[in-house]
Design a protein that fits this description.
Number of strands of chain A: 0
CATH architecture of chain B: 2-Layer Sandwich
Number of domains of chain A: 1
Strand order of the largest sheet of chain B: 2-5-1-6
Oligomer: heterodimer
CATH superfamily of chain A: Ammonium transporter AmtB like domains
CATH architecture of chain A: Orthogonal Bundle
Largest interface: A-B, 20 and 7 residues
Helix content of chain B: 10-25%
Number of domains of chain B: 1
Strand content of chain A: under 5%
Structural class of chain A: mainly alpha
Helix content of chain A: 55-70%
Distance between the termini of chain A: 100 Å
Chain lengths: ~475, ~110
């Protein structure tokens, strides 16, 4: 025992030396082991980021669906007369079913397939090749299937927005046919041009006129808003408009709907970062700020003009602000977001309360006044306030960020935004006019005057939102 | 027998009802109604569109009373419902020929 204790330092040295000699003897094998460990770690880091991004994007997909039903369905449902509440809600709900099927068959492929500058190809028809593997051109860290389902929710709400223009007078069957054609003829090309591979306006994938449209003012709001105006003009006014009073039957329902829209919009805008990092945070903050100042702007304008700020004005303003910040979220800092919201709130109030009244068209629920006008002002203001500090989307050959918007010194961007807006307006107006002609010829667009007076709930769906005998004991 | 058809401000209903019960009125029929007399309505704005609301919420009380109590009932209603402003409401009086209690065929003032 004593001998061992005396010898122990010596023995320890011997063992250590042996180890070192053994390590030095096989340097190549050891590097390979380290290399594979590093690769394994890198894979684990990528997997963790992928999981985080995927969790966020699935959450956002659900939030965007929440905007259509119940959000938009309640918002629009409250604004119509009692006899049309179900028919109006059904229009939004029908999009959740109809556009989904269309998306699986061909819609996704036409929007996000390779194709040309104007429309996607058919390689993803029936969702062929859309699986767990990411499509690195769009979102490198999430399954393409997640990207697909997220984009579907946008394709659902966009046509649903148009329903506000022809509320209380369009045949349900004609509405369905119109929406199928509109999704293919107007939405798919516009989405491809702005967001698709090789699209004419795509800012991040080298389009010829790089339009900054973070979450879809051209694709979603200008197309739907302008199409709404064409629909309102083509179908004509509701029976009795403007002589007969047609106040909203329940601002309470609209209030709940607008609040759900505000919450769902975080999925719409912050989710458009397509990842869960700081860009999503930036878009989230900008979205919220713009909604707040726009509510103040619209209600404030009413307060000055009518002496009272209305609840409907405040919630309509917040929606207008959310529309206007949609292209800008993800490109602008929080303070410009406050400004964009305020401008949009006042501007949309003027469009709805003054311009519409003067021109006399019956855009029943102001789909054009809020989405068309708000989307346009937002798209143009994005060209003003976009900054590379928030999102360095334009880069030189060495990968250094280039100026984004006017406040960065890139004055040309205003021009690019104009091109994007003009293309969206033209495509929506021409496409919608042609589709309306076709549907009018095939099915007829409007219900009969008697049906319109009786209400769409009973005449189109055979039921009532508020069954009167239900109040009897 | 006299029928009193009274239209008053909804906010005054409880005071009127208590005053009537106090003088011995035993039954009444009450409905929530809308209407206007000389009173002007108000305007509402929905997205900048102005709507004139001239039919305002009122409460209508219908009673058929024995003649001897009618004056006191009118007194009770006017003093309980009066604010002195336009829109306080009206009382209409009309002769009633007959009254019948469905339960037992009582007629006239016995049926009231």
């Amino acid at each position: 025992m004593r001998l061992v204790r005396k010898l122990s330092p010596f023995l320890l040295t011997l063992v250590l030396c042996g180890t070192l000699v053994a390590q030095a003897a096989s340097p190549a094998a050891d590097t390979a082991v380290q290399g594979s460990q590093i690769a394994q770690l890198q894979q684990q880091v990528a997997d963790a980021k992928g999981s985080a991004d995927n969790a966020w994007m699935l959450m956002c997909s659900a939030l965007v669906l929440l905007m259509t039903g119940p959000g938009l369905a309640l918002f629009y449902g409250g604004l119509v007369r009692k006899k049309n509440v179900l028919a109006t809600m059904m229009q939004s709900f029908a999009m959740m079913a109809l556009v989904t099927v269309l998306w699986a068959i061909i819609g996704y492929s036409l929007c996000f397939g390779s194709g040309n500058s104007f429309i996607g190809g058919v390689e993803h028809a029936f969702l062929h090749g859309v699986g767990a593997a990411p499509d690195a051109d769009y979102a490198a860290t999430i399954p393409q299937q997640t990207f697909m389902i997220y984009q579907l929710m946008f394709a659902i709400i966009t046509p649903a927005l148009i329903c506000g223009a022809f509320a209380e007078r369009m045949k349900f069957s004609a509405m369905l046919l119109f929406m199928v054609l509109w999704s293919l003829v107007v939405y798919a090309p516009m989405a491809h041009m702005v967001w698709g591979k090789g699209g004419l306006l795509n800012a991040s994938l080298g389009g010829r006129f790089p339009t900054l449209d973070f979450a879809g003012s051209t694709v979603v709001h200008i197309t739907s808003g302008v199409s709404a105006l064409i629909c309102a003009l083509f179908l004509g006014r509701r029976v009795g408009f403007p002589k007969e009073a047609m106040p909203p039957h329940s601002v309470v329902l609209s209030f709940i709907g607008a609040c759900l829209l505000w919450v769902g919009w975080f999925g719409f805008n912050a989710g458009s970062a397509l990842s869960s990092g700081s860009l999503a945070t930036s878009a989230f903050v900008a979205t919220h700020f713009a909604a707040a100042t726009a509510a103040i702007g619209w209600a404030g304008a009413e307060w000055i003009r009518n002496g009272k700020p209305s609840v409907l004005g405040a919630i309509s303003g917040s929606v207008a602000g959310l529309v206007a910040i949609t292209p800008a979220a993800g490109f602008v800092a929080p303070v410009p977001a406050l400004l964009i919201g305020l401008i949009a709130g006042v501007f949309c109030y003027v469009m709805v309360a003054m311009v519409k009244a003067r021109l006399g068209y019956d855009d029943s629920l102001d789909a054009f006044g809020v989405h068309g006008a708000g989307g346009t002002i937002g798209a143009l203001l994005t060209g003003v306030f976009a900054t590379s500090l928030i999102n360095p989307i334009f880069k030189d050959a060495q990968g250094h960020p280039l100026p984004s918007g006017m406040i960065d010194g890139n004055y040309r961007q205003i021009g690019n935004q104009f091109v994007g807006v003009l293309i969206a307006i033209t495509l929506a107006a021409v496409g919608t006019y042609i589709i309306l002609q076709i549907v009018n010829f095939a099915l007829g667009l409007r219900v009969s005057t008697e049906d319109e007076v009786q209400g769409l709930d009973v005449t189109q769906h055979g039921e009532e939102g508020y069954y009167w005998e239900a109040s009897m004991p | 027998m006299t029928k009193l058809e009274t239209v008053i401000q909804p906010a005054k209903f409880d005071a009127v009802k208590d005053a009537l019960i106090e003088i011995g009125v035993e039954g009444m029929t009450v409905t929530e109604v809308r209407g206007h007399g000389r009173q002007k309505g108000h305007t509402e704005f929905y997205r900048g569109r102005e709507y004139t609301v001239d039919l305002l919420p009122k409460v209508k009380i219908e009673m058929v009373l024995p003649d001897h109590i009618v004056d006191r009932a009118v007194q009770a209603i006017t003093s309980a419902a009066r604010t002195g402003k336009i829109g306080d409401g009206k009382i209409f009086l009309a002769r009633v020929d007959e009254a019948i209690r469905i339960r037992n065929d009582d007629r006239g003032e016995n049926a009231l």
